User: What shape does this take?
Amino acid sequence: MSLRDFLSELEKEGKIVHVKNEVNPKLEAARILKENDGKVVMFDKVAGSDYKVVAGVCGSRDSFAKAMGIKKEDLLFKIAEVIKKPTKPQVVEKAACHEVVEKEVDLSKIPVLTHASKDLGAYVTAGVYVSKNKAGRLNMAFHRSSPISKDRFVARICHRDTFKNLEEAGGELPIAICIGLDPTVLLAASISAGDTNEMEIANSMRPLKLVKCLTNDLLVPADAEIVLEGVLTTREKHTEGPFPDISGTFDVVRDEPVVIIKKITHRKNPIYQGLLPAFNEHRLLMGMPKEPTIFNAVNEVAKCKNVLITPGGCCWLHAIVQIEKKNPDDGMKAAEAAHKGHGSLKHAIVVDDDINIYDLADVEWAIATRMQADKNVKIWRGPGSSLDATAEKIEGSDRLMTAKVAMDATIPWDKKRDKFLKAGLGE
Assistant: This one.
């Protein structure tokens, strides 16, 4: 399914906020997106560009569920399923992403948004990088990219698959940056699945067609709105940052590799896709793929029913785990296992299966009525996340440490259960 197909479905349901007045891509668009967090927003006229701009496509769990044809409560289970059962996409000869082949590379024609006045500049935030390793395994991953000239970006390349592919290639790696993708492809690109090709994960969510690039042998989503073909190189570096991180605080400034763009192709009347950093869309794409890993880890020690990485915890640092309690120590075991399932967690809260984990007031009620901190909370020091502003660096090391908290907010095993159940008012 293409982004356009998905937007067409949302349009029929009246779920797109249209901004018809001309909007400045520098800060004004970001302010409007912030005011409409969680909604899909279409900017019909953007100053200095012929492109329309859409953002917020992945701003709610409902969007992912709709794209996959499931209920949002089943997302965790569907993600876990497709990771285990990837399928090969169809490769086609002709594709919508090649409808227009630009004669010259000019990134200034693309309405890349500037999100904060302290940013390095404008940033491509929903760009999915495609690369492959020496063995030929394709990889999709998000990397923020800021234009520094008409044919160059500086890109923040975290030390994961793209970085490994770059090192393996000797510092010169063919890449393609794909912009304008539906939620299933964006979610797949967010998943770290070992040796599994993320495109095959996307195809198991919803059928995906791929096409070969024009200047290299990479395969990219055939229905992408825009494809930027080029080379990622460490032979040129540029200052990158500041930029808002998932936590809402600014990331540090670094020297990062440069991307040299060799070819731009796109659909007719292309739609540029943005993503507002540090808000719902950014957080869901990062956090949701960690819910199945927590689920699997907890299931090794207790009967796990569901997991939620919470928005208040930046969809990264806090998790709520729902279990069916069968043994006295299941709650604490589950909380400790959650930290193993997602090493960046700071706080894990475990509740019974009568608590609605999507209702944070209900979770707080469980903490208030079923837990004693001196008996049901464990705190220890452990490896921290770079996204946690309070994590402390170990002297002489790149490692960070933070306080880890495990909270068992389940009904005490040694007390009568009826005492802790909600009164059935009106029943």
Remarks:
- Residues 300-420 form a domain with the UbiD C-terminal domain-like fold (CATH 3.40.1670.10).
- The chain has a mean pLDDT of 95.
